[in-house]
Specification:
This protein is an alpha/beta fold and about 290 residues long. The chain has 2 domains: about 70 residues, TPP-binding domain (Rossmann fold, 3-Layer(aba) Sandwich); about 180 residues, Rossmann fold. It has 12 helices and 10 strands. The radius of gyration is 21 Å and the shape is globular. The mean pLDDT is about 85.
């Protein structure tokens, strides 16, 4: 799901050094990544693998300290994939919201006092292209990809560092699993800004294999403040709606804000588009949406 230039840089390297990295279906792009094992050093808490040779009972810390002491050869600089230039966002007030424009606008809201928390799915794929300003400012369960992570995680993140305000991105399907933790948010007086990316279903699955099983019942997510008797909520259909919502949410620091972001069911982030294209050919035949309906 990575950008093409970054993928070429990593896969074409003469040596890929992976420290503490467990190779899973997610960080390997549903196993579409092409890493040459003979040119890979993979060091984890369990063992060290150098090429096709495995060395057990070597501590990761000891291995890293050995690397720092070792003569690792040339220090010549190599060209790295540059970050894309961020252009100033100019809202078109009546324009319906799209995923790409949504993330472009969010990029301008982040500062050193924000911690970004993304649920798995297109919330994570879209959020991965955000410009993060400090270390440990981006939190997501990218290893286990456990849906329903983001809202509860906002509680832990803010209690850990009260000066950081969580900006939470969660799909409608994931919110329906654990969104009720907004009650705990209120109990402890926290103030995250929660964006529910509402596309009426499971977007990632739609782009792998579509069918009515990917659709879910639509909730009035913005009305959760009525249930927990605190907070503020609104809907955002257009870029103008999003501007108003952001203005209110960023200034209202007394409690949480929840913004019901309405998106087209088949809109998706650039990363998800790349992922769907690369793994579509690996999915076995199954009945189409039309046949099931």
């Amino acid at each position: 799901m990575g950008r093409e230039r970054v993928t070429r840089t990593v896969e074409g390297a003469d040596c890929v050094l992976a420290l503490g990295e467990f190779m899973t279906d997610i960080n390997m792009g549903i196993y579409t990544a092409r890493l040459d094992t003979s040119r890979t050093i993979n060091a984890t808490s369990q063992r060290i693998s150098i090429g096709y040779h495995h060395f057990e009972e070597i501590l990761l810390r000891d291995f890293m300290e050995g690397l720092l002491k070792g003569a690792l050869g040339s220090r010549r600089k190599i060209s790295r994939a540059s970050q894309r230039e961020l252009r100033p966002f100019r809202p078109q007030l009546r324009r319906p919201l799209t995923v790409r424009r949504f993330w472009a606008r969010i990029n301008e809201c982040l500062d050193e006092n924000t911690v970004v928390i993304c649920d798995p799915g297109d919330s994570l794929f879209g959020g991965a292209d955000l410009a993060i300003h400090r270390r440990s400012e981006f939190v997501s369960p990218a290893y286990y990809t456990s849906m329903g992570f983001a809202v509860p995680a906002a509680i832990g993140a803010q209690i850990n560092k009260l000066k950081l305000r969580p900006m939470v991105f969660v799909g409608d399907g994931a919110f329906q699993m654990t969104g009720q933790e907004l009650s705990t948010v209120v109990r402890y007086g926290l103030n995250p800004i929660v964006f529910v990316l509402n596309n009426k279903g499971y977007t990632t699955e739609r782009f792998i294999l579509d069918g009515p099983y990917n659709d879910i019942h639509d909730w009035a997510y913005h009305r959760w403040p009525e249930i927990v008797r605190a907070g503020w909520g609104c809907e955002a259909h257009t870029e103008g709606d999003l501007e108003k919502a952001l203005a209110h949410a960023l200034n209202d620091k007394e409690s949480f804000s929840i913004i019901n972001v309405h998106l087209d069911p088949f809109d998706r982030s650039e990363a998800l588009a790349r992922l769907g294209k690369r793994i579509h050919s690996q999915v076995a035949f199954a009945p189409t949406r039309e046949k099931l309906e």
